[in-house]
User: Fold these one by one.
Assistant:
Number 1:
Amino acid sequence: MRMSKLFVQTLREFPNDAEAISHKLLVRAGYIKKLTSGIYSYLPLMQRVLAKISQIIREEMNSAGAQELLMPFVQPSEVWQKSGRWEVYGKELARFSDRHGNQMCLAPTHEEVITSVVSGTFTSYKQLPINLYQIQTKFRDEIRPRFGLLRGREFIMKDAYSFHTSQESLDKEYQNMAAAYKRIFERCGLETKMVQSDSGAIGGNVSHEFMVLTSTQTGENDVFYCENCDYSANSNHAVSNLLKVQTDGAKYGYDKEQKLDTPNVKTIDELAKFLNITPDCILKSVLYIADSKPVLVMIRGDKEVEETKLLNAVNAIEIRPATSDEAYEYLGCEVGYLSFLNVDKNKVKIIFDKSAQGMKNFVIGANEPHKHIVGYNFAQTPDFVDVSLVKEGELCPYCNKPLKVTRGIEVGNIFQLGTKYSKPMNATYTDENGEDKPFIMGCYGIGVTRTAAAAIERYHDDFGIVWPKEIAPYHVDVVPVNTEDEEQMQVALEIYNKLLNMGVEVVIDDRADRAGVKFKDSELIGFPYRITVGKTIKEGLVEFKCRKTGNVEKLTMDEAVEKCKTLLLS
């Protein structure tokens, strides 16, 4: 490909509306162009990257025994109503009516459709298990699209679905897919960590995410992991053994229950300072609204609520912090002095986080303005639930060693769905005894566009993208310094043609621009290797540069060609 013919326009500056480095670089390097919020055109360079990722996925999925198909992007409401998700999925599901008044939606996922495809087609246990996958555009109407391809509204995804007659069969395929995913991401040049996760709107009892660990703050989740054992989990699923702290208020002289005036003391830090205690001796109250109903969380003062855990604990679809007005409405008191005391449990659901377990003589709000109660103890032990956010340094639940935390970007996920979709949709097979049984299902997703963006988040520098060679749009950039110099152009074209004939994916920068412009574009776009043909050609030498290491060598033309062959075709 000649750069003079390539449909690409690099920019001197980053776009103003971009936050993530992958978004900034993809726009500036001419890979994508925004159409509207969260929706992008994939330009030729980007399409080549996505095609390579997709091909790697196809090869590994086929090798793992899965079969490719393609399902409709537009789905009728009927299949979603059968599964029960039409009402509960939320506003991310883009719904519309066709000209006949039929309710439809743009596919954010395909559990319902694949269940209807297999149901009635494979009806015998002898035909199972089966694993079917597709690579297709999806649409989720995100409330706040951001970070470019990392959280857009339209995206490309590989989604696979398996159907089984037993849990043992599903377990086996789950491990098969996990192994395939590891190979896929390794071939894409990405190191991933498989972490326990929440299954979210997809559902199911067991789920894991494949996370690319990043050095940037764009990572959407904290990943907690143990260096001593294999435990790792997304923050919304992570658990820990709490560190031993001072949770007995008697150590500070508060061994008797009494109500104290605490004027204008509203925050945990202010209260700890006012009473001369540590935050872990305080049982704080946090009010949420879950599906329009109030939920009061009682949690130790040094801990924070993990909202996904809370969402699951109360079996809600949506959850948000309550406003000050709602605190008055449901608890009759302003924020800062709330507690569970004298609360009507028929109107307000109360959740006690596990961090409150073992607390003695602690401090709570009095549910009266400017008052707290010290030396409080539970009259009877409540049921404790884990709804707290794990902190770095807390102990691994398996080996009791300190947990570490890093940022991560989800690029893949796997779920054990069980009969979540087959039962309500009456999707059954006939077992060996002639009885109808619901399919036991698994599903397995990879974000194709997210994988490309995550690679940039992981591999970039001050000059641009540093693609893993496996998914780079082109491998070699041949740059004649002066296109008016016949010898330079002749040698550059000879190198270009030799590489082309060998099957190397190569571009030649035949533009009549200054060498500095070409070099900057080459590094911005992220070609793994650059061969520069300049004045040293009179000595029979060209310059060979590795984008990843920055290492530069002076080689003969034949040596440069042979090096490309060794690096790319061996």
Note: The domain at 21-239+405-457 is CATH 3.30.930.10 (BirA Bifunctional Protein; domain 2).
Number 2:
Amino acid sequence: MARFPGDARLNIIVTNDDGLHTPGIWHLAQALTDLGNVTVVAPDREQSGVGMGITFHNPVRISEAMSRIPGVKAYMVEGTPADSVILAVQAVPPLPVDLVVSGINEGANTGHNVLVSGTVGAAFQAHFWDIPSIAVSVAGIRDWRFDVAAKAAQTLARMFKDKTLAGPMVLNVNVPNIPMGDIEGVSVTRLAKGRFTDTLQRVDSFKQDAFYFWLARGKAEWTEEPDTDIWAIKNKRISISPLHIDLSADVTSPLLAEFAPSIFRAIKP
């Protein structure tokens, strides 16, 4: 259970889905060192697209790794981002964990893409343990700038420390890939609607009658309504989307309520 000890230093876990050796996670960890005891616990390799997946049928190994920041311990996990959080909150000192921050992801995690994002998946796993969490991403395809995202994460983490924000919540933060001076504001947003144009690329194997596929992710098609994360980024604004884990549709749907008795009779005549 998360605790908020006032002026005491928070125990902060930093993780990601791009892997321990990518620069974004170290920019993030450095930005949080003034707020508490920062420990980096992250996958040993690229894990983009694994969502909230966890490892069941193989052991999950963890080993201490070389840290790039004095005073910050680092651990490498042979598993998913969610695995990393599970290990961190149960087995990596100092405990208990007060805050989990995931990122800084190289690329946006917006719209329905949050359902497959390992960055957001790690944040959701923290939520399962009643620990507040922040997922942070830079909305670019190359030459990522991490300074704005790190500052945004630091600001939100400080709000948890000061109890301005309290309770187990998931904040999904997306930052335009532009200089700090070009940022025009912060918007609290909802997820944009849209889809990716995923395609299959068939590759014929050297074996007779054998072939396999690569899944290729094409350009996303999004609606850009003013209160969405996509709109915010397009308008040079930092997007903060509060998320919740309850994926249930509206159970008060009049149509389903009307047909519930007949559905029951069909199931149990």
Note: Residues 19 and 29 are 14 Å apart (CA to CA).
Number 3:
Amino acid sequence: MGKYEDLLIKYNHLYIEESKNMPDHLSGMCVDGDIFINSNRSITQQLEILAEEIAHYKLTHGNITNDKEFNNRKFENYARRYAKEQLISLNDIINAFKHGIHNLYELAQFFEVTEHYTLETLEYYKQKYGLTTRHGKYVIQFEPLRVFEYKNLNQRGNIK
């Protein structure tokens, strides 16, 4: 079972419909708490769309489709950022590197998303944290993407 199915199970209390009848320009939408996913998209794109629509369900209210309004753009970006952090967390990046995954194609496959979405998410993290961030006992460098285990050599017992 993949991440898409996992999300469907996790949010089985929501009405989620996959539809082939949605207009081509529309990937998904959340209307009155009901989520609609364009099933003409690839399964990786459907996962990305589902995560974002769930974020809209959790975080935004009302009709925010008019992107000419500042608050609507703000809420749209808020939902996108939330979805990115849910699909590709810092822990997921660390886990990928522990599995020996180092290139964009393998990362996208590991996260079950598109390469484009992977790049967008890494760019988002770079904007949020800068070129590096410390997460637990790891340091994540976003450009080029690398993960290092942080060891404090100044702790008692390590230096003789």
Note: Residues 84 and 121 are 6 Å apart (CA to CA).
